[in-house]
Write a structure and sequence with these properties.
About 35% of the residues lie in helices and about 15% in strands. The protein is an alpha+beta fold. Helix 4 packs across helix 8, helix 5 packs across helix 7 and helix 6 crosses helix 9. The two termini are about 50 Å apart. The structure holds pyridoxal-5'-phosphate (PLP).
Length: about 1000
């Protein structure tokens, strides 16, 4: 029987206080801490110090305490920087003392300094970086423990992984046969992977209990969180050192969707401090499973012994589901993943097999009768960012794609088209490759074979001698269809496989498993669309080093996050085929490469979003796709108004560009059609259009128009406003001239307070808010009038850069009245909010019941094609027409006007304003519900699909929470949702997605946001 299984006796906080005073001379208050066998107390001394008093179970031997004290002292000396509990000396200068409890039993009592920190079990989230830090912490500690030993560390302990085989004789205590089988499976893995390699597993004193209740982490801020220590050295023992990492991983994966990904992080961190050998790396995954198996068996035994004791079953449910998840991972796949995490080549035999493939290539290996080394061929770009495919999934429909590929081959006079290996593709839209209803979840995108597009019926020959390993027909849509796997061996008898997918059904009838196939023998034929799994006719040729017992289910496409492992399991098939590398352009460069080239080539103040920059190569509807094919829900970009790559907009641009693109010095009807459509959407007297290329160009012109009318330079702007990047627009943008690098306010610029009813001068609840804010503009107008100057007033109708602000009612009405009374002109900058986004109205100024003198349009007007416009009155246009020619080379060209027309058509035909209203209302309601739950959301505001979440550290003070906002936005990005921050304090999360955004998209956003808001760094 293990020592700890004897009955414990209760000790009260009063006892603890008394013992602390008498043994250590400290006056304290005491609180009981949870514990399985011993009585532990958290002590607060009068002088502010905190301790943990440990009153051991009477059965505990002094050697056991001595070991812990000696280990902690050893660590304090050998790795001082690690935050670990410090042993306090008694008044007698000893580390612990025997003491009699009320029942007369002798307890060994000792005291440690209290280590502050939150337990890992309560910390949220468990980021990969935090878990890697845990691994590293343990690795550093174990390096120091290498020079430590103690007789008690060699005691018998049920948690010692090197003795975990004890559960073999206990599994029958688990009554559920399925669960018992699960435990038996991990016991067998332990035998096969761990015990059989025990000679290679280094032994030493280890802490042995990095469970999530014992690991402490630093406060949520500052980010990133670090490991703040480990407590409870009671399970310290002399065992396999690698178990340290495995034990930590076993607890860290509880309740997690992807246990291997997280376990890997701990092992990665551990290995960085305590380099593991091959046997140890191989043991990690089975040891994780075995630790959990020991835990569930232990709980089952304890439940029989002590049915009412909750403590023993603390992690039982989590352990069972973790075991179930782990059991789905092939142990060799886990091993390869752990090797990759430790910086090794994932598959140990990989290099040898690859060099054998190269040798065979030299001997003329081929899979088609035509030799791809010399035959004319073309290489296709089927990547996520392929311009041949475009964004529209209709282009990937099998018949369309077949036409595209084979017509292109015909045009190039080649009979073979090549699809590249290790290419991220979005061709795999079937549910086989990812979940349909979770659009932002990672899908399988990385192509693990080489495609040879050839006419159906083309003969396939064996590149090497081999044996038919498997014949199958995978009938699911976009699967392999009929496939053959051949088995081969290197001269050193290392086995590997080649896979041939999308064949004819006849191929399967002509072969038998076990049949020998000689090099160059024709053994298969390429299938047609109707039989090959629904693909353009091609041979999918893949080399596989380890089938992972998956047979015909071995994937031809892997997850990008596991790329390092899959591309080792299935190395480059061209090693064998020898297509000249100059004919085979390599795929896209990595994010890191692109980032460093960007830094070298482009201006440094061109900012990049997110801590981990995104490389976006495709956009479709409300989704953007990175180069690895991950979809991101676009909640941020208002420019692609009708959705990214809308086919009607794309077609309008393509058709007109293929016919004519010139300038406005020739007559053309497109600009007139467009001006007619645009002015028809405006109230009278806004009847004259100027068509330009960017919001800045349009605001520049608007200012010129206004000044031509007022004959004064003076401009009234709002606090925090941004109107564009030209010299004059920077001068009228407080966001820029008052911001970093800004040159301050020019004398002709007059800044009025932003009518922000949440954190401005006048707030919700006050009467006549609009009039009060407008009065501030009136004062400026009065001052100008005194020196006979007339103002130009420019404002966004719902300030976006200012923080997604909705003006209080009557604000613009009264303001415009004051400005006009002073002989001024009112410009409405609608660059962000126009075109129906607000749901209730087509233009922002309509929400305030005003008609501006000049309206500026940009951003969404061309759905991301460079287009902008100014609409004004005949009177103002006439004042501007002073003899100087107005000409913008590209402004109003036939292509941009065709695009503008298509955008207006789509907004009308797809009823997008109404969609913005309906979805926006549901979204606002759901966001307000989140606001009830999370203090951080101070305000939810906006209209339609133009919304803002104002994040605050305190609802009372409304102190902005910019770090929290940045945290939330970066976490959303990790979860596949793109949002951004804005506002003068950078604390407003702005939501302004393409107007096709759906109710399901809004629900997904709210669900993810709710999860993130419950994480520690998001607490107000
Ligand atoms: C309100 C507003 N006006 C004008 C501009 C300038 O537009 P562009 O960047 O197209 O020159 C912007 C750009 O962010 C804007 O937000």
């Amino acid at each position: 029987m293990f020592l700890e299984e004897r009955t414990a006796i209760a000790i009260t906080p009063a006892d603890a206080q008394q013992w602390a005073r008498e043994l250590y001379g400290v006056t304290v208050s005491a609180k009981t801490l949870p514990g399985e066998y011993d009585a532990n107390f958290h002590l607060h001394a009068n002088d502010g110090r905190e301790f943990v008093l440990k009153c051991m179970h009477p059965a505990r031997e002094s050697a056991f305490i001595d070991m812990q004290c000696a280990a902690l002292k050893h660590l304090a000396k050998h790795c001082q920087h690690l935050p670990l509990p410090r042993v306090q000396q008694t008044r007698k200068e000893t580390s612990f003392e025997p003491w009699k409890d009320a029942a007369g039993q002798t307890r060994l009592v000792w005291m440690l300094g209290f280590l502050p920190g939150q337990t890992l079990v309560k910390a949220k989230p468990h980021s990969p970086e935090l878990l890697a830090d845990l691994g590293k912490f343990l690795g550093v500690m174990d390096v120091a423990l290498c020079s430590f030993d103690h007789p008690a560390a060699h005691r018998e302990l049920k948690w010692d992984s090197s003795r975990a085989g004890w559960i073999r004789n206990q599994v029958q205590v688990i009554s559920d046969p399925q669960r018992r089988a699960l435990v038996e499976y991990f016991v067998s893995l332990y035998g096969e992977w761990v015990e059989s390699r025990a000679d290679g597993l280094r032994r030493g004193a280890i802490y042995g209990d990095a469970n999530d209740h014992n690991v402490l982490v630093s406060p949520a801020w500052p980010q990133p969180r670090r490991i703040a220590g480990v407590i409870d050295f009671g399970d310290m023992h002399h065992g396999w050192i690698v178990s340290e990492a495995a034990i930590a991983a076993a607890y860290a994966i509880l309740g997690k969707e992807d246990p291997l990904a997280l376990a890997k992080e701990i092992v990665r961190g551990f290995h960085s401090a305590f380099p593991l050998n091959e046997a140890e790396i191989a043991a990690t995954f089975p040891l994780v499973g075995m630790r959990l198996a020991v835990s569930v068996v232990n709980s089952a035994i304890r439940k029989v012994q002590k049915p009412a004791d909750d403590y023993v079953t603390v992690s039982e449910d989590g352990a069972w589901s973790a075991l179930e998840r782990l059991a789905k991972i092939h142990p060799r796949f886990a091993h390869y993943s752990m090797r990759a995490a430790c910086g090794l080549r994932a598959v140990p035999t990989g290099e040898k097999i690859k060099s054998y493939l190269r040798q065979c290539e030299n001997q003329g290996a081929k899979v088609l009768e035509a030799d791809v080394r010399t035959a004319p061929l073309c290489v296709f770009d089927l990547s996520v960012g392929s311009t041949m495919l475009g964004a529209n999934p209709a282009n990937a429909e099998v018949h369309t794609l077949t036409r595209t590929l084979f017509e292109s081959m015909e045009a190039e006079h080649v009979a073979i088209g090549v699809g590249r290996y290790n290419e991220a593709r979005l061709l795999y839209s079937s549910a086989l490759f990812g979940s349909e209803d979770a659009p932002t979840e990672e899908r399988r995108t990385i192509h693990l074979g080489l495609d040879l597009f050839v006419e159906p019926g083309t003969a396939v020959c064996a590149p090497l001698d081999g044996v038919v390993h498997l014949l199958a027909e995978n009938t699911a849509a976009l699967d392999y269809g009929p496939l053959v796997i051949l088995r081969h061996a290197t001269q050193q008898e290392q086995e590997f496989f080649t896979l041939y997918g999308h064949l004819t059904r006849e191929t399967l009838e002509s072969l038998e498993p076990g049949q020998a196939i000689a090099k160059d023998e024709i053994f298969a034929h390429v299938g047609a669309i109707h039989e090959n799994g629904g693909w353009p006719p091609h041979l999918h040729f893949q080399v596989i080093l380890d089938l992972l017992d998956r047979g015909a289910e071995f994937p031809g496409v892997g997850r990008a996050s596991e790329r390092a492992v899959w591309t080792e399991l299935s190395p480059e098939p061209n090693l064998l085929l020898g297509i000249l590398t100059e004919k085979m352009p390599s795929g896209e460069e990595t994010v890191e490469e692109t980032l460093s080239r960007r830094k070298a080539l482009l201006g440094g103040n061109l900012s990049v979003s997110y801590h981990q920059p995104l490389k976006i190569v495709r956009g479709w509807r409300q989704y953007l796709y990175d180069d690895a094919g991950r979809a991101y829900l676009d909640v941020y970009n208002n420019v692609p108004l009708v959705g990214h790559s809308h086919p009607r907009v794309v077609e309008a641009a393509q058709r007109q560009l293929a016919l004519l693109n010139s300038n406005t010095r020739y007559l053309h009807e497109n600009i007139l059609r467009y001006a007619e459509r645009l002015t028809a959407l405006m109230p009278k007297p806004l009847e004259v259009c100027f068509v330009l290329n960017s919001g800045s160009e349009a605001n520049e012109l608007a200012l010129r128009l206004a000044r031509a009318t007022t004959r004064s330079d003076d401009v009234i702007v709002l606090e925090h406003a941004y109107h564009g990047h030209t010299n004059t627009l920077i001068d009228i943008s407080p966001y820029k001239f008052d911001g970093p690098g800004g040159g301050g306010k020019k004398p002709w610029v007059h800044v009025a307070p932003l009518a922000d009813d949440y954190r401005g001068l006048h707030r919700r609840g006050e009467l006549q808010l609009g009039a009060k804010y407008a009065q501030r503009v009136a004062q400026i107008c009065d001052d100008l009038q005194k020196s006979s100057r007339r103002p130009t007033y420019i404002a966004e109708t719902l300030p976006s850069v200012g923080g997604q602000i909705v003006f209080p009612p009557e604000y613009l009405k009264e303001t415009y009245q004051h400005v006009r009374a002073a002989g001024g002109v009112c410009i409405a900058d609608e660059v962000q909010v126009g075109f129906g986004r607000l749901g209730t109205h087509f233009w922002g100024f309509q929400t305030q019941g005003v008609v501006p003198d000049i309206v500026v349009l940009g951003k969404p007007i061309g759905n991301a094609f460079p287009l902008a416009a100014v609409v004004t009155t005949h009177e103002i246009a006439a004042a501007f027409n002073n003899g100087m020619e107005f000409f913008s080379t590209f402004g109003g060209n036939p292509v941009s006007c065709a695009v503008g027309l298509a955008v207006l058509d789509v907004v009308r035909d797809e009823e997008l304003q109404n969609n913005a209203l309906q979805v926006g209302n549901q979204w606002i309601a759901a966001l307000k519900e989140l606001q009830q739950e999370f203090e951080l959301i101070g305000d939810v505001r906006g209209s339609g699909l133009f919304l803002g979440l104002d994040l605050v550290r305190s609802r009372d003070t409304r102190e902005p929470a910019p770090e929290h906002a940045s945290y939330v936005v970066n976490r959303l990005r990790e979860q596949g949702i793109l949002a951004g921050t804005d506002g003068p304090h950078h604390n407003v999360i702005k939501l302004r997605p393409p107007m096709i955004f759906s109710a399901a998209n809004a629900a997904l956003f709210c669900a993810e946001l709710g999860d993130i808001l419950s994480e520690d760094p998001a607490q107000a």
